Amino acid sequence: MEKSSNNLLAFSAGVDSTALFFWLLEKNIPFDIAIVNYHTRKTSDEEVEYAKTLAKKYNKKIYIKDCFLERFSENEARKCRYEFFEEIMKKHNYDTLILAHQLNDRFEWFLMQLSKGAGLKELIAMEKWEEREWYRIYRPFYNVSRDEILTFLNERGIKYYIDETNFDEKYKRNFFRHNFSDKFIKLYKEGVKRSFEFLEEDKKLLFDTDWKREKELFWFEKSNPKRDIKKIDLILKKLGILPTKAQKDEILKTDFNCVIQGKIAIDSNNSYIFIAPYVKIPLSKENKEKYRKLKIPPKIRGYLQKENICIT
């Protein structure tokens, strides 16, 4: 990793992010930290204070977000968290978001997707490096097990916090973690690591992108619905949206003609599928006629005009 990069570490004071904090220090990789306080646990404020202490001691900038959710859910918490990270990164010109996902997280995700029915891309969605529209995600621990991380912390006598909600099996990920993934990793860690490496190579061979792109506009030639929805899923993730099954079903049901979360337009003509930020503005008479002749679908036209994009 380039030591000149502007890096922001997503910090929680838990096992993984605390180990990552000190690992980055040992590697002399520059970074600052961002932490979200959901105020849902007794130790939430203590964890923020610990983050402040580390930031002061090691001369790191720290950004803190108080996120009060009417009803706590993993999806809403994740949405609040990532919106905060992206806001900070844009405002302060960070180009890399460092996340503490590790091997157990990847295998836990794998099993959860396997239980629902998923393809290769969904099964191994977490990658070491992930390119987003204007920044990168870096997961240094993506092939390191939780036991290895705990050993790192304990050998150095590093303080960390345990999130007690991680033991509540009403959350699906905890159910999979405690009943399946952690036990399996303890027994077959090296085999799981090698399997993920093989699967990643297969994924690269199978999913070379064949779409075209101009700014945040993507388009590709229609093939079949199953393949097309996989491409759309990947593009939406690049645009910062993790589509749910219901949203994917809506995309197919509307024949690739809908708006996701009021933000991203998906539209199509007889030959192509287009994806772009949804922009609703009056079109000039000249552009109306031009887009009609080019058979550009309606939901995409506002973004083309706003960004002055010309495609043929």
Order of strands in the sheet with most strands: 3-2-1-4-6-5
Mean pLDDT: 92
Q: What portion of the residues fall into strands of 2 or more residues?
A: 5-15%
Assign the CATH class of the largest domain: Alpha Beta
* N to C succession of SSEs: EHEHEHEHHEEHHEEHHEEEHH
- Overall geometry comes to globular
The CATH superfamily title of the largest domain: HUPs
State the CATH topology of the largest domain: Rossmann fold
Q: Which structural class do the helices and strands define?
A: alpha/beta
The DSSP helix count reads 11
> Stretches where pLDDT falls below 50 for ≥5 residues?
none
Description:
The protein has 312 residues and is an alpha/beta fold. It has helices at residues 15-26, 44-57, 74-92, 103-116, 120-123, 146-156, 172-206, 225-238, 245-253, 285-294, 298-307; strands at residues 7-10, 32-37, 62-66, 96-98, 129-131, 136-138, 212-214, 217-221, 258-260, 264-268, 272-277. The protein has 2 domains: 7-203, 3-Layer(aba) Sandwich (Rossmann fold); 212-307, no CATH class. It contains 11 helices and 11 strands. A hairpin with a 3-residue loop joins β9 and β10. It is globular, with a radius of gyration of 22 Å.
